[in-house]
Amino acid sequence: MRIPIQVIETVRRVWDEESAGQGDLEGRLVRSRGELMILPAGVTKGAGLLKALGDRGLSQYNTIGVGGADNDHSLDVCEIGVAVCGGTGRARRIWPG
User: Fold this and answer.
1) Mean pLDDT across the stretch 15-23?
2) Separation between Cα atoms, residue 74 and residue 45, nearest integer Å
3) Is the dihedral of CA 25, 2, 69, 96 positive or negative?
4) pTM attached to this predicted model
5) Which of 1, 59, 61, 91 has minimal Cβ neighbours within 10 Å of its Cβ?
């Protein structure tokens, strides 16, 4: 996919503004349901869930992940995964009903 230079310049400007004073940060672009998100490297729903479970002494193997968008694939860290009815094709491929 070819990305227009204006989009790249805007993403770079927003990234620079949001990360000001934090040193060099690595990031990635994530597209989900028509939205484009700029996320720090390593930040996913699954990583956040694992951190929250660990803080509470809970296991990922007693957890159900429910999602329906392309950015929910990281929830596959759960023992059971469920794609919602209106989920994207990628979500349904990861968690077929």
Assistant:
1) 73
2) 6
3) negative
4) 0.62
5) 1
